[in-house]
Amino acid sequence: MCNLYKVRSSHTEVADFFDAIVEDFGANTAEEVYPGYPTSVVADGRLQSMVWGFPLARKGAKGQPLKPKPVNNTRTDKVKSYFWRESFEERRCLIPVSEFAEAEGPRGSMTRTWFSMPDAPLFATAGIWRQTDEWGAACSMLMTEANAQVGPIHNRMPVILPRDVWGQWLGGTPGEAYDLCVPYAGQLAVDRTEEPWFKRRGGSA
Fold first, then answer.
1. Does 203 reside within a domain?
2. How many CB atoms within 10 Å of residue 148?
3. How wide is the angle at C-alpha 52 spanned by C-alphas 50 and 56, nearest 5°?
4. What is the count of structural domains for the chain?
5. Are 137 and 55 in contact (CB under 8 A)?
6. Tens digits of per-residue pLDDT, 1-20?
7. Residue 179 belongs to a domain with what CATH number?
8. Residue 152 within any structural domain of the chain
9. In this predicted model, what pLDDT tens digit does every residue of 93-117 receive, in sequence order?
10. CB within 8 A of 107, min separation 6: which ones?
11. Is this prediction's pTM over 0.90?
12. 3-state helix/strand/coil string of the chain
């Protein structure tokens, strides 16, 4: 699953890349995006801010309400479930990404391995979104089986959408959209780093 990605481009650059209208974000979004963080999303022809993750209600041991958990990944084999179905059928979006990370190595000393496009500053991952009482607009990223490059590290990866199928994802029928939920067939650039997986979160773009 993907729990960390980067968007290195400015809002204007992202909007230009996706031919989208820029909304007034009010504040910068972080370059490193974690579950529960605001991020840039293309929906209804506009680049807008959404929280990464649908809120999942939680209760403590004594039944007291806890802060909702952001469910930021949607497995493609679960899109027909109650939690995801309406959003998948009616509110699909594009989530701009510069590179996404997976944790590699033994537990306790995992490092960040980054995946990106070798010839582009951005690419589109498949997303769904909805309005929430807790956080306003929120999005989740579609996950499918890993391709040969990601597979040695994790068994799933984001659904990466080439430019020529963006329209099918956004405007096609649920069946046509589901047909796109396959492992990425192209080549990804792989950057194995010594960055610890767990480190202080920060940075802005």
1. no
2. 11
3. 110
4. 1
5. no
6. 799 999 999 999 999 999 99
7. 3.90.1680.10
8. yes
9. 999 999 999 999 998 899 999 999 9
10. none
11. yes
12. CCCCEECCCCHHHHHHHCCCEECCCCCCCCCEECCCCEEEEEECCEEEEEEECEEEEEECCCCCEEEEEEECEEEHHHCCCCCCHHHHHHCEEEEEECEEEEEECCCCCCEEEEEECCCCCCEEEEEEEEEECCCEEEEEEEEEECCCCCCCCCCEEECEECHHHHHHHHHCCHHHHHCCCCCCCCCCEEEEEEEECCCCCCCCC
Query: Which pair of structure tokens corresponds to residue 102?
Result: 């997976």
Residue 118: which domain range? 5-55+68-195
Residue 90 burial by Cβ neighbours in a 10 Å radius (0-12, 13-18, 19+)? exposed
CB contact at 8 A, 122 and 161: no
